[in-house]
Specification:
Blueprint (H helix, E strand, L loop, with lengths): L18 H25 L3 E8 L5 H9 L7 E5 L5 H4 L5 H4 L8 E5 L8 H4 L5 H22 L1 E9 L2 H13 L9 H7 L2 H14 L5 E5 L3 H18 L10
Helix pairs in contact: 1-10, 2-10
Length: 248
């Protein structure tokens, strides 16, 4: 992917994408994902880890609900990583992550992830640059471990929205009764640190890019959902999975 500069990447869908046609295609893909996830679960040879990162209001919850919500909940887990507990802080930073990685046959979704330990921690200077670089090395080795020793396939998505779109969505949480429960005053304070967050995201993406990140233009939910659904479909479809036969 090279040296990523987020301000050089559009946050909107390419002009050649038609909204109605793309939504119809996404709907068909989501229906097929249900069958592929069932096959993944039955064969139980592979596991899938989906990492979703993005600024507040970038649409992490929505994409999980709208893209993965149709699959069998027996085979899909979602874990949201909040501020670490006292117990978690008493261990290495990957301890709470590793115990939530997927077993074979499962799709595990991380709503925020181990990358928070080199993002928000650096923005607020809770983690110095030397420690951050060590953590990046540990993350690379950790992801390599999952791939090589548990047949885990990792999809990493950064939901790329514009600061203008973020502000619009944050203000919706104040004015829309259906979204007021999401309101958090601190989100507006974090938004003021946008430029620093972008710098830290670029550093994380460029230094931990194997497996490669997908930068998802996320100002338009219909396009964001299409990209993520397509990536998951292509991965599952590439695995050559087969239903196991009768046990002898």
């Amino acid at each position: 992917m090279g040296n990523i500069k987020l301000n050089k990447i559009s946050t909107r869908a390419p002009k050649e994408f038609d909204k109605t046609a793309t939504k119809e295609k996404t709907s068909r893909i989501i229906q097929e994902l249900d069958d592929l996830q069932n096959l993944l679960y039955a064969e139980s040879k592979h596991s899938i880890l989906i990492v979703i990162q993005g600024m507040d209001a970038s649409g992490k919850d929505g994409v999980i609900r709208n893209v993965m919500g149709n699959m069998n909940p027996q085979g899909v887990n979602v874990h949201s990583f909040k501020a670490p507990t006292a117990e978690e802080l008493s261990h290495d930073f990957l301890w709470r992550i590793h115990k939530n990685t997927p077993q074979k046959g499962m799709i595990q979704i991380f709503n925020r992830s181990h990358y928070e330990d080199i993002l928000i921690t650096r923005v607020h200077k809770w983690c110095d640059d030397i420690t951050a670089k060590r953590r990046m090395n540990a993350i690379n080795e950790f992801e390599k471990l999952l791939i090589e020793h548990n047949n885990t396939h990792i999809l990493k998505f950064y939901l790329h929205i514009s600061p203008e779109e973020q502000q619009e969505r944050l203000h919706e949480r104040i004015n829309d009764p259906a979204k007021m429960w999401k309101y958090n005053e601190s989100d507006f304070e974090e938004a003021k640190l946008w430029d620093i967050y972008m710098e830290m995201y670029e550093d994380a993406i460029n230094n931990c890019n194997e497996p490669e990140w997908t930068i998802v233009s996320a100002d338009q939910n219909w396009y964001k959902e299409y990209i993520i659904a397509s990536k998951l479909y292509d991965l599952l479809n590439s695995l050559g999975m087969k239903f196991p036969g009768l046990k002898k």
